[in-house]
Amino acid sequence: MKKIAVISDIHGNWEALKRVSQYLEKNIDEIWCLGDIVGYGPEPSKCIEWVKGNCKYVVCGNHDKAVWDTGELIYFNPWAQEAILWTKSKLSEEDIKFLRSLPLCVKEKEFLLVHSSPVNPEQWTYIFSLWEAKEAFQHCEEKVIFVGHTHVPSAFQFGEEEIKEIDFPININNRFRYIINPGSVGQPRDKDPRASFGILYENTFELVRIPYDIKATQKKMYEENLPIFLITRLAQGI
Predict the structure, then answer these.
(1) N or C: which end of the chain has fewer CB within 10 A?
(2) Pairs from 93-102 (Cβ < 8 Å, separation ≥ 24)
(3) Which residues of 68-98 are buried (b: 16+ CB within 10 A; e: fewer)?
């Protein structure tokens, strides 16, 4: 089986994506992206360009959509709203056209890719709890559902009428189904500021954490007058 990288929530953080890219160049056959290429970070166009050139599959995230559908901004906090409007001002028509073209879901054999939950994905529901995971499992039939959106790496296993949260690395067993979240490349929120993503190979899904130059990203955000809260949280992993 190919070695496939699953990445999500880059959020315009080129410094983080650049470090992840350097790792993937040596270790990966394909890359699947679970959305939110833009939002928060200072280099959205560079991140879009990289995703276009390197990812086999890409789904739409809520920040990606908000760039071209500003009606979505009512669901965002003030810092995120400010960052989206700034992002939109920095993107080319071609960038925005690409974001508009992204599907909400992609199915690849036994895999389903979606940014939030497969239950009404346009509503951008988070999957944090066992109840939310159960609802997602009941809504689709794929063996492995890859999701992002929470910025927190997590995994749920379902089988024999039981759902439980499991740890990484994951041994994918034919008797079970899985929801897997690889965390965030550009803005982790599990109190670990390192870039987070995953690698799928044979019957294993491995979580990978890579440090990057956070101060360089913060400096660029300061220079663009992006919200201070968004800048300081990067170093805290929140």
Answers:
(1) N
(2) 95/44, 95/45, 95/48, 96/67, 96/68, 98/48, 98/52, 99/37, 99/38, 99/48, 99/60, 99/64, 99/65, 99/67, 99/68, 100/68, 102/35, 102/58, 102/59, 102/60, 102/64
(3) beeebeeebeebbbbbbebbbeebeeebbeb
**DSSP result, 190-220:** SS--SEEEEEEETTEEEEEEE---HHHHHHH
Structure tokens at 8: 């999500």
Q: For residue 197, which of 2, 16, 1 has the smallest C-alpha distance?
A: 16
- H or E stretch including 62? helix 62-68
Exposure of 202 by Cβ count < 10 A (0-12 exposed, 13-18 middle, 19+ buried)? exposed
The H-or-E segment that residue 57 falls in is: strand 57-58
What would the pLDDT profile of 90-101 be if each residue is shown by its tens digit?
Answer: 999 999 999 999
**Domains with residue ranges and CATH for the chain:** 4-236 (3.60.21.10)
Supply the DSSP symbol for 151.
Answer: S
- For the stretch 127-164, pLDDT in tens is 999 999 999 999 999 999 999 999 999 999 999 779 99
